């Protein structure tokens, strides 16, 4: 089984398989703690930015994946400036707030923004759970649960059947772009 996110294409290549995934860095940053001012996540599909405040008062800001493919996990000044400018469009009063840290991780983006889950035709025992892109935290629990059921029973649960990798050769894409509007590739 391969559940190696941004590295999935490399692992698949070991079994002569070409996955329709492109690995992009995704960055986020966090500000110094502030008094509470929002109690929900605010996301703008136009600006490609999302904002929420943690229990500690820090403001977490993220956005779209970097618009190029890379395995670099270094954060960049350009993305910081872009995210900060978009943040100020939404919350102008945050001008002057200090940024504490910024980070980058790798996202395995599929053409339909949906994960790839399940068995691979012609490769018995080689299972995939990848292509989670920018929203794998949220779906992690049910993704893990259903993959465990497949491993245990050998039967693909109905819930994940549409996410098999063969959908790309069959033209049966699952459009999940709306699941990550702020993070979709520009
Ligand atoms: C900045 C940022 C913000 C994000 N924000 C959100 C969010 O708000 N909500 C959300 O739902 N998702 C978010 N995500 C996306 C989320 O992090 C991913 O979708 C999720 O972590 C993918 O889970 P995974 O289990 O597929 O892969 P990962 O959690 O990346 O785990 C893959 C594992 O495979 C290991 N591995 C790689 N190669 C090998 C190998 N050859 N052998 C053995 N092990 C290997 C890696 O070390 C890693 O531990 C964000 C990502 C980033 C970078």
Describe the structure.
By secondary structure, the protein is an alpha+beta fold. The chain has two domains: 5-21 and 110-179, FAD/NAD(P)-binding domain; 25-106, D-Amino Acid Oxidase, subunit A, domain 2 (D-Amino Acid Oxidase, Chain A, domain 2), CATH 3.30.9.10. Helices cover 23% and strands 24% of the residues. It contains four helices and seven strands. The strands form two sheets. Strands 2-3-4-1-5 form a five-stranded antiparallel beta sheet, covered by helices on one side. A two-stranded antiparallel ribbon has the order 6-7. The longest helix has 18 residues, at 136-153. It is elongated and about 55 Å long. The structure holds flavin-adenine dinucleotide. Flavin-adenine dinucleotide binds at residues 3-5, 7, 11, 26-28, 62, 105, 107, 130, 132-138.
How confident is the prediction overall: mean pLDDT? 94
**Alpha-beta classification:** alpha+beta
Distance between the termini: 31 Å
SSE order, one letter for each helix or strand: HEEEEHEEEHH
- Please mark out the parts with pLDDT under 50 across 5 or more consecutive residues, or reply none: none
CATH superfamily heading of the largest domain = FAD/NAD(P)-binding domain
- Any idea what the radius of gyration is? 18 Å
Overall CATH class of the largest domain: Alpha Beta
> Which ligands occur here?
flavin-adenine dinucleotide
CATH architecture of the largest domain: 3-Layer(bba) Sandwich
The number of domains is 2
Beta-strand residue percentage:
15-25%
Number of helices: 4
């Amino acid at each position: 089984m391969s559940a190696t996110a941004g590295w999935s294409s490399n692992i698949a290549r070991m079994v002569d398989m070409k996955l329709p995934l492109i690995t992009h860095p995704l960055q986020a940053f966090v500000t110094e703690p502030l008094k509470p001012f929002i109690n929900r996540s605010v996301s703008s599909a136009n600006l490609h930015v999302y904002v929420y405040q943690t229990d500690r008062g820090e403001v977490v800001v993220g956005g779209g994946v970097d618009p190029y493919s890379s395995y670099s996990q270094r954060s960049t000044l350009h993305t910081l400036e872009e995210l900060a400018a978009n943040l100020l469009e939404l919350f102008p009063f945050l001008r002057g707030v200090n940024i504490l840290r910024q980070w980058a991780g790798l996202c395995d983006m599929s053409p339909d923004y949906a994960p790839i889950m399940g068995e691979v035709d012609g490769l018995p025992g080689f299972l995939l759970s990848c292509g989670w892109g920018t929203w794998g935290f949220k779906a992690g629990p049910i993704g893990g649960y259903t993959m465990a059921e497949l491993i245990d029973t050998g039967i693909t649960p109905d819930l994940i059947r549409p996410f098999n990798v063969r959908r790309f050769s069959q033209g049966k894409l699952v459009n999940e772009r709306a699941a990550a509007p702020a993070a979709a590739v520009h």
